[in-house]
């Protein structure tokens, strides 16, 4: 709603900040988005890690943003954050520890973690017959 224009991602700026080529940045971003889209189409649980901010957890049709405590503390100051959490304890549901396993935040215990592309839990496949 509201005629908002999308601004294209400035690959050259990202490449300069990361000290890599524009082509590599474009390939990485497009590859990650393609894989993320594929996982979501298949109904897989996904956690998108936002460095130093928190994580976006997508599980089925449920989407949650969880923030690192130190990020919120930097934004608001320690005293302000403590006051807010004391007044609205439900906000603690939006705070996550950096050391907590991401898979523990899901109902299923399974999640694909982006951008590291690691799987936090993978069920063991059934044994196959050996090929000759």
Automatic annotation (TrEMBL):
> What domain of life?
Eukaryota
Outline the extent of the CCDC81 HU domain: 6-78
- Coiled-coil positions: none
Q: Which residues form the signal peptide?
A: none
Transmembrane spans: none
- Name one matching Pfam family: HU-CCDC81_euk_2
GO terms for cellular component: microtubule organizing center
Q: PANTHER family per the record?
A: COILED-COIL DOMAIN-CONTAINING PROTEIN 81 (PTHR14362:SF2)
Protein name as it appears in the record: CCD81 protein
The gene it comes from is Ccdc81_1
